[in-house]
Sequence to fold (602 residues):
Amino acid sequence: MTIIEKILAAHSNQSVVKANDIIDVFIDARAARDFGGANVVKNIVDNGLKVADASKTCFTFDCNPGGSDQKYAANQQYCRMYARENDIAIYDVDAGIGTHIAIDKGLAYPGSTFVSTDSHANIMGAIGCFGQGMGDQDIAAAWAKGSVWFKVPESVKITFKGERPANVSAKDIVLNLLSIFGANKLLSYSVEMYGEAIDNMTLDERITVASMATEMGAIILLFTPTVSIIDELEKRSGKRYDIIKADADAVYVNEFEIDITKFVPMVAKPGHPHDDTSVESVKKTKIDSAFIGSCTNGRMEDLRIAAQILKGRKVAPGVVLKVVPSTDEIWNQALEEGLIKIFKDAGAMVSNAGCAGCAAGQVGQNGPSEVTISTGNRNFEGKQGKGYVYLASPATVAASAVSGYITTADDLASTPAVFEKKGTVTKNAEKKSVEKGNKKTEVEGRVWFIQKDDIDTDMIYHNRYLTITDIKEMGQYTFDNLKGYEDFAKQAKAGDIVVTTKNFGAGSSRQQAVDCFTSLGVQCIIAESYGAIYERNAINAALPILTYNAGTMEAIELQSGDNIRVNFISGEITNLRNNKTAKLNQFYDAQLQIYQNGGLLG
Fold:
């Protein structure tokens, strides 16, 4: 049998399995991440299931360490509560990437089986373990039953001939393989890796190559553990493992021989991990940012390689370098070895351990038109942000970061490249149409009378929407964090007027808490008082706001739904339902001037 057939047979109570057999596979370690973990729990709870064996079950919070996104934070806390009730281990936001933790702590080991909501769970092939990323229902089934069904894949054998070139890293090896096999020539195969160059690879290097099996379409890239790999695993986990290997008469659907001496340093061009070319062919491509980390290249050896290049050098002017170790243990080791200081002295930002930009939840994201060179495993459009991402080795990324353009460690720029002034921002700017002069100073509209003091800017416009810069998009989120008014934006109509009480707009300086009303077409806001910054923001944005003294709204018997007339200059307010009139504090001269000018910048 092949390696994968041996592992699956041993976990299905069968002496022999063969390709295309469908079997129930017992899972030794069953993980769920913060990305998908909440759905795993929901599937279990909604179907009345229980966890079969808590000792084989865990959560790994690696997509968004720290819960900087509200939805991630909610999911993480939901999983924590479930874990407490069911004695399930959590590798929380301080731990790092779940698959790496599983290897280092012996949750996964040669000959074992491991599943996770992580599509890169097949990274376990690095140690001769069957790892598989699965969907929420699959993982829920594994948690509840201890096993899942699986179709035994066909196996392919790749043998590398020759000696690996000195300047070719593990990342270069897998990018060269992607250039040969693309994204689908190894689709659904279990791929076994052989040759002297493979035998000599370290654990960290094997992890790099195995981590990109998914990008090649393979079920898994499997390495036969060597004695030195077994020793390394024992050193990390304190456990001794047997070496698992294929039988001499194992059957493969295909076998390939590859001359590794022809491999060169590579990059994957933006958009596709399999759109690969030599670094030489894209040298001098100007970059905006660089990233070192992810489950592919966040290991200790990766950080040492980067630090060796960065030591005594500075990141090129204007270039941003982000470094994210894969686990907290590696972070601490990097600190002890002085690597963190090297990164900081070079001008890099070092973040806590985790998946980083790959998961769109931590550092590593880029903006529109930003060119990034990254050690990640994916550069799909939009995956790591709105810009363009090249994939490369830690050495190439570090060399590029100090040079300011894509290059190799043996060809660093003598003088870092600087950015040209192209006037792109001014050229692409949208000219704002500002209505000036003859603006209405008297309005009529339907009232929303919100009788709550201290409505803060998070209630008006929550911080989870602060990345929005287009006013047209802001209105839909108005008051969605104000209890009882979550549907305000759906029910409000252009021309409405908001009346409230004391200290409206307390809190932050966010302009969106003003602009969201403009987006909805709210004609004016009337409050007993405003937060100081909010008042300035509203006046400067030409959103009419007025204040009133205690008793004013009682005098006109104001109710929600009434129609009122408001004169900004005289301060007169009239309830059109009963024609009762009272006085507001009218616009002062500077406010009127800014309003007629269409805003402070009009």
Q: What stands out?
A: The domain at 266-418 is CATH 3.30.499.10 (Aconitase; domain 3). Residues 338 and 406 are 26 Å apart (CA to CA). The longest strand covers residues 442-450.
